[in-house]
Recover the amino acids of this structure.
């Protein structure tokens, strides 16, 4: 019973199955029992009729003699003896004039009445000298049938209950426990989380269909997990690639204009919050159009790549290099004073001047013009960038291969 209680409390399917097994088994039992008892009732009724008929036939000679000899008391005694048999509900004896000689019992208007003639031989001719009217007592048959119905119903219910529990136990062992394992595992299964396989118990039933189903579901879950994690990895990689494409210059690999402006605005906001200076620098390769026109765009692209790499190597980790346009670049340098910007500009020019462009005839050297400034506390980044760009063009107009900045920041220097 403890098993049944635990089973019903933990498994809704077990409860449903038990109730339905009991209902269908109970209904079937009631129908079969009712049919059987109906047959038994008819059998008992027929037996009662046969026994009552036999008793009437046995008593007929004595009753006939009593009526022939006009011994009414004897007829009454015989009637009482017949009533004591328990077969009859009522007995009525009449003589040939239809006069009641004896009446015992109680008339039942709903019961059938049987009539039997008392016949005597008079001068070798049969003569009716009286009749017996009787009703058999079917109440005992009904009561016996009801008693049997109650006994059979109780016994069948007990057998049905225990058989149902046994069937449920078998079904639980073969099916329900596996379904519960699958259901609980599926509820906790998350493809994106670490994978825990569905537990498979190795027993003598390890080859049945339910165990095979659990194994298949576990394997499917593992495949879904691998597929999901694979998709997540692909999505992450694709997202990183898209972000790189969105914010990186495809030729040089440095930040594009959009990314550079975004990083610069974020750096400017942080500098004002933490109170440190930010400088911006604009750079432009000298006579770059001549390289494209003379040697082709492939040569120009190689120059841009090498120059970008050289400039990146001159920067700190916190500095940001961006390609603003064709051959124009920009650098944002947080926390650098005027001396640091001067050294950075010199280092950039020297690094670019030392580059080897062997693919260009006569190892042509590349120079760069630079303009830089400090971002004021009361201006946005684009204003400072525009001012650095103005200094850049001043540097180009001053003969190129030079850098210019604010007069109050550092004097103009020509390399």
């Amino acid at each position: 019973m403890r098993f049944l209680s635990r089973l019903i409390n933990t498994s809704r399917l077990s409860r449903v199955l038990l109730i339905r097994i009991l209902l269908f088994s109970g209904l079937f039992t009631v129908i079969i029992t009712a049919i059987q008892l109906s047959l038994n009732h008819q059998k008992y009724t027929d037996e009662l009729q046969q026994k009552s008929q036999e008793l009437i036939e046995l008593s007929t000679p004595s009753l006939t003699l009593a009526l022939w000899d006009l011994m009414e008391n004897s007829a009454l005694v015989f009637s009482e003896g017949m009533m004591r048999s328990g077969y009859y509900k009522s007995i009525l004896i009449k003589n040939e004039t239809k006069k009641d000689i004896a009446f015992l019992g109680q008339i039942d208007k709903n019961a059938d009445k049987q009539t039997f003639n008392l016949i005597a031989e008079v001068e070798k001719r049969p003569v009716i000298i009286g009749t017996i009217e009787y009703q058999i007592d079917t109440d005992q048959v009904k009561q016996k049938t009801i008693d049997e119905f109650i006994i059979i119903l109780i016994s069948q219910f007990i057998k049905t209950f225990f058989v149902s529990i046994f069937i449920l136990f078998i079904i639980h062992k073969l099916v329900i426990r596996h379904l519960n394992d699958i259901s609980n595992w599926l509820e906790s299964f998350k493809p994106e989380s670490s994978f825990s396989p569905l537990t498979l118990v190795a027993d003598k039933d390890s080859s049945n269909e339910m165990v095979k189903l659990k194994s298949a579901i576990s394997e499917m879950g593992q495949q879904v997990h691998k597929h999901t994690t694979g998709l997540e990895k692909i999505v992450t990689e694709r997202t990183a690639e898209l972000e790189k494409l969105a914010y990186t210059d495809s030729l040089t690999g440095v930040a594009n204009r959009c990314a550079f402006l975004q990083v610069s605005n974020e750096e400017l906001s942080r500098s004002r919050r933490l109170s440190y200076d930010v400088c911006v620098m604009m750079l432009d390769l000298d006579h770059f159009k001549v390289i494209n026109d003379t040697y082709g765009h492939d040569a120009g692209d190689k120059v841009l790549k090498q120059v970008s790499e050289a400039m990146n190597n001159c920067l700190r980790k916190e500095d940001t290099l961006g390609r603003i346009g064709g051959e124009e670049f920009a650098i944002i340098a947080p926390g650098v004073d005027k001396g640091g910007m001067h050294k950075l500009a010199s280092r950039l020019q020297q690094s670019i001047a030392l580059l080897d462009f062997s693919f260009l005839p006569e190892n042509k050297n590349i120079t760069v013009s630079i303009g830089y400034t400090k971002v004021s506390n009361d201006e946005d980044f684009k204003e400072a960038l525009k001012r650095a760009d103005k200094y850049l063009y001043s540097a180009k107009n001053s003969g190129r291969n030079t850098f210019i900045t604010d007069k109050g920041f550092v004097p103009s220097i020509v390399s």
